[in-house]
Amino acid sequence: MTVDSLVQQAITIRERAYVPYSKFPVGAALLTKSGKVYTGCNIENASYSLTCCAERTAIFKAVSDGETEFTAMAVAADTDRPVPPCGACRQVMSEFFQPDMPIHLTNLQKETKTFLMKELLPFAFQTEDLSESN
Ligand SMILES: O=c1ccn([C@H]2C[C@H](O)[C@@H](CO)O2)c(=O)[nH]1
Ligand SMILES: [Zn+2]
């Protein structure tokens, strides 16, 4: 699986976004260790805060399918710079992505910036932090 193929799948699934409120479609493509790709788009709601971002849609689809090990993700939107994931998605990513996993952020011109998980969310709250109180 090439980076360009993952980026293209993120751009393609973006067309499925349900975005009547923001009119800002986003697509994500998530590669599993086993070589499968799970795609996701953002899904909005009339109660705005219930919106699910593209990144979390892709992750939740994969996890609900029994996949919890990933090797790369691509995220695409129509932005001037490669689209930055929101803070909520970074926290959900950090639950499943290893610190050195690459996340390819892109726009419709395929201008792509690649960050490692640990660069997108340093000092993440993690499961080990719960052990003190349990
Ligand atoms: O990385 C991002 C940034 C924003 N959004 C969505 C949330 C909302 O539906 C719309 C505008 O914020 O874009 C994503 O899906 N992913
Ligand atoms: Zn998000």
UniProtKB/TrEMBL annotation:
The keyword Transport does not apply. Keywords: Hydrolase, Metal-binding, Zinc. SUPFAM superfamilies: Cytidine deaminase-like (SSF53927). The active site is at E55 (proton donor). Its EC number is 3.5.4.5. Residues 1-128 form the CMP/dCMP-type deaminase domain. CDD domains: cytidine_deaminase. InterPro entries: APOBEC/CMP_deaminase_Zn-bd, CMP_dCMP_dom, Cyt/Deoxycyt_deaminase, Cyt_deam_tetra, Cytidine_deaminase-like. Belongs to the cytidine and deoxycytidylate deaminase family. This enzyme scavenges exogenous and endogenous cytidine and 2'-deoxycytidine for UMP synthesis. This is Cytidine deaminase.
